[in-house]
Amino acid sequence: MEKTWNNKAWFMVLPVLVLVAFSAVIPLMTVVNYSVQDTFGNNEFFWAGTDWFTDVLHSDRFWDALTRNLIFSAIILAIEIPLGILIALNMPKKGLGVPVCLVLMSLPLLIPWNVVGTIWQVFGRVDIGLLGYTLAALGINYNYVNNVFDAWVTLIVMDIWHWTSLVVLLCYAGLVSIPDAYYQAAKIDGASRWSVFRYIQLPKMKRVLLIAFLLRFMDSFMIYTEPFVVTGGGPGNATTFLSIDLVKTAIGQFDLGPAAALSIIYFLIILLLSWIFYTVMTTSDAQK
Amino acid sequence: MARINLDHIRHAYGPSPKSPSDYSLKEVHHEWNDGGAYALLGPSGCGKTTLLNIISGLLQPSEGKILFDGRDVTYLSTQDRNIAQVFQFPVIYDTMTVYDNLAFPLRNRHVPEGEVDRRVNEILEMIGLADRAKKKAQGLTADQKQKISLGRGLVRSDVSAILFDEPLTVIDPHMKWVLRSQLKRLHKQFGFTMVYVTHDQTEALTFADKVVVMYDGEIVQIGTPAELFEKPKHTFVGYFIGSPGMNVLPAKIDGSSVDLDGQKVALSFAPKIAAGAKTELGIRPEFVRLGREGMPVTISKVEDIGRQKIVRASFASRPIAIVVHEDGEIPTDPRVTFDPSAINIYANSWRVTDSLPIGGAA
Hints:
The structure holds 2 protein chains of 2 kinds. By secondary structure, chain A is mainly α. Chain A has 2 domains: about 10-45, no CATH class; about 65-280, MetI-like (MetI-like fold), CATH 1.10.3720.10. Helices cover about 75% and strands about 0% of the residues of chain A. Chain A has helices spanning about 15-35, 50-60, 60-90, 95-110, 115-125, 130-135, 150-175, 180-190, 195-220, 225-230, 240-250, 255-285, and strands spanning about 35-40, 45. Chain A has a two-stranded antiparallel sheet with strand order 1-2. The model of chain A has no long low-confidence stretch (mean pLDDT about 85). Chain B folds into 2 domains: about 5-230, P-loop containing nucleotide triphosphate hydrolases (Rossmann fold), CATH 3.40.50; about 245-350, CATH 2.40.50.140. Chain B is built from 9 helices and 23 strands. The interface of A and B includes residues 184, 185, 192, 200 and 288 of A. Chain A: Pfam families: BPD_transp_1. Chain A: Its main location: membrane. Chain A: This is Glycerol transport system permease protein. Chain A: It is found in: Cell membrane.
């Protein structure tokens, strides 16, 4: 068949282009617009250059929130990934237990994020919450409202409750795809339970684990709803993550310039980390 | 190395089996000699792999006992039975090097590292992967991977038996031949008890001293390749072994003569048949003589397969295959005679030995 040489094909991608322009490019450029100007309302803008960026990057508030984010993500990953693997390894492989376990595991994932926050907010209250009341009755001084450590523990436990299932389901999918012959061969070879995990299950789960790791990192790094509902960023600024800080700056204080600059920096951090993960994943695949 | 006794073994995959058809493996009662090379031959789904997994301990039989050298091992795990098994599809440990893959079964059993090195190098040499010893196993082709699986089965020198579950399926024909001869040589050298599952009769006949033919969950015959060829105990063995398989023709037995739809054939013995049994005559295509004398046949097709010709014909309104030598002539008015010593009589598909009726057995 003769090939037709013209540029009409570009019209084919036009609808997508328009959609992306409205949903991503235009809002993003508006943010860029705000980040380099100052405004006092009335649609009056004054050129500010890179001032807002310099301000944000020199503020303790930004670095503190970023540190909190990184610590939170590190803790979450260090607990959820091994715990998820452990649960997946112990889930039944056949029989009635499989659907029961799968449904139980999916339940937390089906609950809207703000509801999860509300559940835990009530659950942890010392006066009426089951957890808070029980702990207080046991003589443990627990109060997430004014104790920094308690607030962090509550957020971490909540996130583990909410999201470990995702890691479990991904790992489980990896595990059930391992043919029986591998386990039989391992028995014949006299492999220990640890060797089976180390040389059969872990290598076969590697790809899904990388995805689980990436998803949990991105999600925990962008966490907003749950801490906003439970602690509102407090006590003090103890649980004020970048996203909460951003909303406070933009909607609370109406500092649109600094908020826009912060958004762009936040966006670049996530972009950078995603790129690093992507590179790590593709190079480890290329070794195969 | 061990003598293996299968004592009234039966197996059903479902719970509470009742009728014989619930059993994937009907009763097997048999002794496997120490140092023997056995081939389990049969079509897919006949229970070969089930039997193999029962011997290795991956599967617990529903009924019966397994003895190794007289010791009851029925409830012992695979590890305690000290069995090596090679599977149909390659199983390798991706993250390990080729060398470590082969060393794995030895290291798990705490064999001294010097001995490990000696054994692994020997196996590497045998499977021809010595130059890749230090490479990661995951980059290899399917047949190289299968060679590693094979190597892992052979690396231990003290095993009770080595079981092979169609191990050469993924290997290309030339390499199959090489590996099979190496297995054979290894067997002669070390005297392992080897059980080799296959559905390829050439593989079974070249590998084994004794071939165990299975059909529909039971062992129908155990014998040397020659016995399977000359005296198939069951009509299934007759047409499963040999290419083309045995001609099986419905026959009426009358004393020492057989009536094949009007054509009379004399027998050298008078088979005793239980009343009402379905009787058949079996004759291998190699022992049907085509010439100008005997019973008339109608030739429909002649296949020239090089060293011989296979004549497809119709005899007494039944299809029949005849093997003719490469330059044997095919007469215009073809007739056949049967070599009387090569005639087998079957009652209800089981061979009738001389004058002893065994019709209806199974």
